[in-house]
Structure formats: C-alpha cells, structure tokens
Prior knowledge:
heterodimer, A: mainly alpha, 10 helices, B: alpha/beta, Rossmann fold, 2 domains, 11 helices
Amino acid sequence: MTxxxxxxxxxxxxxxxxxxxxxxxxxxxxxxxxxxxxxxxVVGDPGEQTMSEYFTFAQLGVAVLLPILGILIVTSEWSxxxxxxTFALQPRRGWVIAAKAAASVVLVVVTTAAMLGLAALANLIxxxxxxAPGSFSVEAGLIGRTIVFQLAGVLVGFxxxxxxxxxxxxxxxxxxxxxxxxxxxxxxxxxxxxxxxxDFSMTTAPLLEGSLxxxxxxxxxxxxxxxxxxxxxxxxxxxxxxxxx
Amino acid sequence: MITVEHLTKRYxxxxxxxxxxxxxxxxxxxxxxxxxxAGKSTTMRMICxxxxxxxGTATIxxxxxxxxxxxxRHVGVLLDASAQHAGRTGREILAVSAxxxxxxxxxxxxxxxxxxxxxxxxxxRVKNYSxxxxxxxxxxxxxxxxxxxxxLDEPANGLDPEGxxxxxxxLRDFADRGGTVMxxxxxxxxxxxxxxxxxxxxxxxxxxxxxxxxxxxGGGLVVRALDPPALGxxxxxxxxxxxxxxxATFAVDAPAETVGRLAAQAGVALLELRPAxxxxxxxxxxxxxxxxxxxxxxx
Lengths: 245, 299
C-alpha cells in the first residue's frame, strides 16, 4: 500500500508540472521572485539587502500563484476530463486524493528551496551592484514558518478545488471569499472578536514576520479548520460519491 | 472474463440501464451494440467502478473492478478518447500512466510504434490530434498494462477505413491469444466484422444476446436454382423443410453443404446459395434506433 501511495504521489507531482499551465505558473513564480529581488536591490535600504529579506519578499508572488496549482491539481481532472483515466487506473479514490495532497506538499517544499536559491543568488549579486555588503544568514525558523505559510495557502486551494471541482469557480472563490470575510470583519463590529481566529489571511500573515506565540498558532489552527478542513471533508465526500464521466 | 449481473442505473425517474446481465468470455470479441443513449457507456462505466450502480454487480474474472489491486494490469479501458489533458503530449500521457501502472517506460515507445504514433506525432500535444489519433492513443493507453481484458467504448469513432481495418486485426489477434474484448458501437456493420458474440441493448434493456453467427444466420439459407421446381422436388425428397420465396428462391433450414451436395447429386444448377439477410438483427436494431429517436424527440 505504501509503495502504491509513493508511486501515485510521484505521478501526481509529475502531472502538476508536465502541462503548459503548470510550467507557466512555476516559471511565473520564479520570474516574480527574481523581479521582487531586483526591486529590493534598487530601492531597498542596505540593511534589507540580505538573503533573508530577498527570500521573504519573494514569497509575495509565491503566495498568490502556488495555491492556483493546488486548485488545478484537482480541478483539471474535471475540466480536462482526465478523471476518467485517473480513477480507472486507481479506483481507490481516497488514495488519489491523498497522493494529490502529498504532491502539493512536495510542490511547496521544492518551491521554497528554489526561492532560497534565488535569494542566495540575489545576495551574491548585491555587493557588486549596491553599496550593501549582503548577508547569507537565514534563520532556520523562518524557512520552516515560510513552508507552513505557503502550505496553508496551497492546502486551502486544494480543498476549495475538491469541494467545487471547477477551476474558474475555485480560483475566483479562493481569492474573493477571504477578502469578503476580511471586509466584513472590518465593518461589522460583532465580528471583531472572531475575525482574528477565523480570517485565514490574517492568522497566517505573522508566519512571515517572526515566531508565533501559542495563541497565534491556535489562531492559525482554527482558521485552517474553517478554510481547509471543512471544504476538504465536503470535497472528499463529493469525490468519493461522484459519478466519473 | 467480464460478468454483468442485473445491473441497473436510475437517475431520478429515468432508468438508463435496466436489469442488464451478460458475459464476455475469454478468447472472444463481444460487440456491445445499441443506438446512442441506449445505456452502453453507462454500463461500461459501471463495470469500471466509475459510476455507482443503483443495483446489480459487475466483475472482472470474479473480482469487482474497484477491488482489483492494480486494475490497469488486468483491464485495458478506453471510455472516451477525447478525455485527455489537451496540454500533454501523446508520449507524456502514456508515460504518466506507465508510471502509475508501474510498467517499464520502454513499453511506452513500443505502444506508440504499434499504434502508429511514434516519432513527431508522439511529441505533439493532444490538443492538435485528430479524433482518429486520439483513438489510436487511447488504444495504446488501454494496452499499456498488458491486460487480459479490454473494454472499449466506440473505439472506431473517428478512425479512417484503414484505421478501422487495423483495429479489427489488433482486437482479433488479442482475442485469439485468449484475451477478452468488449467493444461498443452504435453501428452494426462496424462490429459485425470482428465480433464473435453480440449483445444488443436498447433503452437500457438487453434486446439480444447470442453468438454472432446465430444472430446473423438465424434466417436460414436462400437458395435459387435455374430450375426451381426441380430444386423443390429434390428438397422435398430429402425431407428438408423449405418454402418458396420471392424471385423463384427457396428459404431453407439446412446447412449450405447439405443443400449444395443434394443439388449437385441431382444435377440441379444453383444460381444462389447464401445465408438469408441478417434481416432479423438488422430489423431489431433499426427498431431500437427508431424508438430511441422517438424518445429523444419527446424529451
């Protein structure tokens, strides 16, 4: 069983990057990361022109685009109707879902590693084009929290994809719903006390800023229960029962 | 072997497949015939555990599809040649499935060669494939895991005459080596040339299920002689039941060899000695199609 799951996860990882959409999204993430580093190099303070800062700044692009890959890994099976092949080759649909989740984790880890490489390269160039000396020091905790931050986004996208089984619907709602929630939270005073616990963009933002205390981690957990676990459960039930056409 | 027992699928008040039972034996090609919307694809999807049946069961060599450990190694499935990611190349689609099946990637090149998609065609994205090329890719895909059972839904769709001829040879060869083939079609002529066994479905129900020869020659022989009365006398003397048909022919219920020998011994020159038209099946099929169309119009 583990051998099958490993193999399936490999297959799903490959399926994420062997299409034009996948290659474009990943290329765009690298390009935006490089662009953001260049911006920081030109307009940033010398104190900010370090590998650690380049790395953190590059996450802006990653945070927007990587969840789309998390959505597409599920929804493209329906829009391109490849689900017919996928589930004929593996009728245990739960395994396919698990393999796709595993592939999403692989994607986040590999992207983080690539962004570290990009940041190191930017840091290497820094003394050549600016007055700043640069610094290769990156806190291990920052890398860990960045992975958690990006994973949260990708997994929420993944769960949205499962629950909706439609690329445009899942992508639009992924970006619109949390924003609507944030707006509602700011205008409805009754939501003031719950927003810090349920607003997923609000709870995960501190991950990129510094270490979190116990309450902040609990807030990450509760918001993920709403935006990840809930749609995931609905989505799994839907896919397990669905008629694949 | 594919065994289907009392499969039923209802969508609300509409019954797409109604208590369908049949078998596809190893070493044979079973043609699954029916007009569009008769329930062919739904039945095939239920066999492959893609559509949950309302009731009834389907098994492959005694095991439900969803319980097969690595189904692609037992059953090659082609349900819709167009259901492939348009952005992947033909080769990539096979390579990904080879990985999922755990078969050697060399098999991918072998199969691309077999279906005539090697070289430049394999590197093109499926978006740019014709329907015929997609069918060829789908057949390669079905054969990837070296299965013993093939389930193909309308595989001849979009193939040119040469492609159809090629596919018949391939399926015949597959069955002759002991494989089980189930292929669907809405055209009688298309499966007549390759099938050993025919299962005809209309409006969700089995309308006929028998060996092709029995279904096609159920009408006996048509015999015409230069001298009809002489032939009638020969047949009466031999005790073979016959009745006069149009154009001085006789409809005869006897093997062609028997009739031919009798006529030769009696010195009666025969002008025609052939199976009666597959009228029975053709008519049944036509009736199913017409009824199917009528239903569509009402809806």
